[in-house]
Design a protein that fits this description.
The protein is α/β, with parallel strands linked by helices. The chain has 15 helices and eight strands. The protein folds into two domains: 8-21 and 28-52, no CATH class; 60-318, 2-enoyl-CoA Hydratase, Chain A, domain 1 (Alpha-Beta Complex), CATH 3.90.226.10.
């Protein structure tokens, strides 16, 4: 288990409990279970206290936790007969974006998601979930495919933002993001999106301009990262805590502003503490969102998205 900075006291207690049990296992004559159980209870109470009222910056840290289930884990667990489709048919394959055909509870769907990777090698290969223009153009190609065959589209968002490299800009990064956003809004099939970790900048909007948008309880969704915002506003990236507060990037804030439609509760301590429970909860939310959209005509689905985005933020601002 990887512990975040604010979880260090918890790491010490759980580490002591693990040491005691290891000693007891090595020496069967030692009775350590009672003391270890007391440490477990203390750790559980501390975990509840730590996660009861997370600050926006701490939520950013949880959203970026390396042990959280990533896009690939959700696809493997939730979608039967998943068939990946690669390439943008124009330049290259972008491994930061996973997409293809699958079945959600026997229902054929098109799935598109951003994958960060789980170790150093895969993170480099996946470019830490930061898509290049060809990744967005691949997503457009798959959404066109879904529209042609009347298949719902599901997107799983987890990216710090679009890749800002020179080559990406030369190949039309901004245009690709705009086209992907436009394609989301123009689809005549249901589009449901779940922000499973970070929803960063246009890289997230290009996948999440959906009929229904859900966020995991400790995920974040923002026009810019707190560090980037602090660098621009205060010329000091260390002011990321203040920026996180100002950006209103938490699921709870965004639900009030009606930017998202639902919050998916996470296991105590975050999705990384019980990935299987989290994956099941996301599956249930996806099925519920698609059910809400069943039976709507293509024009009704487009109008649904239009009204959603036109009304966005009005309730929260009025309050």
């Amino acid at each position: 288990m990887n512990y975040l900075e604010f979880e260090k006291p918890l790491a010490e207690i759980e580490g002591k409990a693990a040491e005691l049990r290891a000693m007891g296992k090595a020496n069967p004559d030692m009775d350590v279970e009672k003391e270890a159980a007391a440490l477990d209870a203390k750790a559980q109470k501390l975990l509840v206290d730590l996660y009861r009222n997370l600050t926006p910056w701490r939520k950013c840290q949880v959203a970026r936790h390396p042990d959280r289930p990533h896009c690939r884990a959700y696809i493997e667990a939730l979608f039967d007969e998943f068939t990946p489709l690669a390439g943008d048919r124009g330049f290259a394959e972008d491994e930061a974006v996973i997409g293809g055909l699958g079945r959600l509870n026997e229902r054929p769907v098109v799935v598109i998601g951003q994958e960060k990777g789980h170790d150093t090698q895969s993170r480099l290969r996946r470019n830490f979930g930061m898509a290049r223009p060809e990744g967005y153009r691949k997503a457009i190609r798959l959404m066109d495919l879904a529209d042609r065959f009347g298949l719902p589209v599901i997107t799983l968002v987890d990216t710090p933002g679009a890749y800002p490299g020179k080559g990406a800009e030369e190949r039309g990064q901004a245009e690709a993001i705009a086209r992907a956003t436009q394609k989301c809004l123009a689809l005549g099939v249901p589009l449901g999106s779940v922000i499973i970790g970070e929803g960063g900048s246009g890289g997230a909007v290009a996948f999440a301009s959906a009929n229904r948008v859900a966020m995991l309880e400790h995920s974040v969704y923002s026009v810019i990262s707190p560090e980037g915002c602090a660098s621009i506003l205060w010329k000091d990236a260390e002011k990321m805590r203040e920026a996180a507060e100002a950006l209103r990037l938490t699921a709870q804030d965004l639900k009030k502003l009606e930017v998202i439609d639902r919050i998916i509760p996470e296991p105590l301590g975050g999705a990384q503490r019980d990935p299987q429970v989290m994956i099941k909860a996301v599956g249930a939310a996806l099925r519920a969102m698609l059910k809400e959209l069943d039976g709507k005509s293509p024009d009704a689905l487009r109008q649904d998205r239009r009204q959603k985005f036109l009304a966005m933020g009005s309730k929260g601002l009025a309050a």
